[in-house]
Design brief:
The structure is a single chain. This protein has 4 helices and 3 strands, in the order H-H-H-H-E-E-E. It has 150 residues and is mostly helical. The protein has 2 domains: 117 residues, no CATH class; 29 residues, no CATH class. The protein is elongated and about 85 Å long. The termini are far apart.
Amino acid sequence: MDWKLFAQLAATVLGWWVVNFFSKWRDIANDRRKLRTQYLLEAYRRLEGASHREGRQKEFEDQLESAVADVQLLGTPKQAELAAQFGIDIAKNGVAYMDDLLRDLRDSLRSELKLEPLTKNNRVLRFYDKERVGPIVGGNQVDPNKAMRS
């Protein structure tokens, strides 16, 4: 047997195996990143959707529970700590501040998606019965007779 031919064949097989191994590893890492991003984006949407709501509504409580669980499972250590603190505060006081958690989620998701960072805080737009309350933007009540600017 020609040893040169055997060496070339062995190098080709080894090269194929190495490329295949690293391609699988890269694909698994990409799938994990996509899954994590998807879950954290949904958690962000559920948290934001439940924020600045009037009264306690079961639908929003369920969303908050699910979002906090997802953030604690898939978020950064800081995000998990903020989510846990939010849970503690809401259990103690019935209300809690989640702007820091939303901001951290927003910033990390924008970074992961290669989007420019935002320097301003988010504004939350909520419509309520105008006769009772009027619209709320970013936690501030807006006079329903004036145009909303934010």
